[in-house]
Amino acid sequence: MFNALHKPRPILTAFAIALAVVIQCTTKAEARDIQTITVAGGCFWCVESDFESVQGVIEAVSGFSGGTVSNPTYKQVTQGGTGHYEAVQIRYDADVVSLDALLAAFFRSVDPTDAGGQFCDRGESYRTAIFYGNGAEKAAAERAKADAEAALGRSVVTPILSKQNFYEADAYHQDYYKDQDIILTRFGPRSKAEAYKRYRNACGRDARVLELWGNAAAFAS
User: Residues 6 or more apart from 181 whose CB is under 8 A from it?
Assistant: First the structure.
């Protein structure tokens, strides 16, 4: 009778094992070193597209930072006068990809010698910048900038700025590069994804990055 009463039940045993696996997986997920870094590299659609292809990047969010206007609209920022950059907040797993690697890729995905904007996009909102949140991030940004200058043999004008409020752009601008919603373009009705590809090519982004960085270009091909 004693053995019968205390014999483990298969269903309860299986449940206990499954619960242990869930707890273990949750603990591992919570143990990940999740960090964020904000950069400005011209058109935020392009920066978002580039960095969401990097292993270890969890997400890249398009928005605005560096200015004086709270909750700015896209129109306000692109018209100028707000001081904001089109920026992208990159959320990444530091156990998979390092900040040094991300910043090296950032410099090699833009023209950091151009103080007036990026590629066909001109004006203050399209300038490059790195926003740091602590001393370690500032040091990493300074290392990456010095490395870029050495690699190019030219002065890099990308400023390294203290982290400021980041204002997320509205939903229309998020994941633009893969959005299949149809919009009207000068080429007729196109998905946002197709319009994005046409814009990026016409703007000369990849062509200029390849001209500047050659085989070291991070995302252009």
Answer: 191, 192
Which CATH number fits the domain that encloses residue 89? Answer: 3.30.1060.10
Q: pLDDT 10s per residue in the chain (221 long)?
A: 434 444 445 544 444 444 454 445 444 446 789 999 999 999 999 999 999 999 999 999 999 999 999 999 999 999 999 999 999 999 999 999 999 999 999 999 999 999 999 999 999 999 999 999 999 999 999 999 999 999 999 999 999 999 999 999 999 999 999 989 999 888 789 999 999 999 999 999 999 999 999 999 999 97
In a domain, 221, yes or no: no
Asked about 43 being catalytic, the answer comes back as yes
Beta-strand (E) ranges in the chain? 34-41, 57-65, 85-93, 117-118, 121-122, 128-132, 160-162, 166-168, 182-185, 188-191
Instruction: Tell whether 75 is covered by a domain.
Output: yes
Number of domains comprising the chain: 1
Domain that holds residue 102: 32-175
Cβ atoms within 10 Å, residue 132: 19
Q: How many residues does the chain have?
A: 221
Residue type, 149: E
| Residue 2 falls inside a structural domain | no
Give the global pTM: 0.84
Helix, strand, or coil here: 168?
strand
For residue 78 the two structure tokens come to: 């692109």
Catalytic option among 43, 46, 120, 203: 43
- Residue 130 counted as domain residue: yes
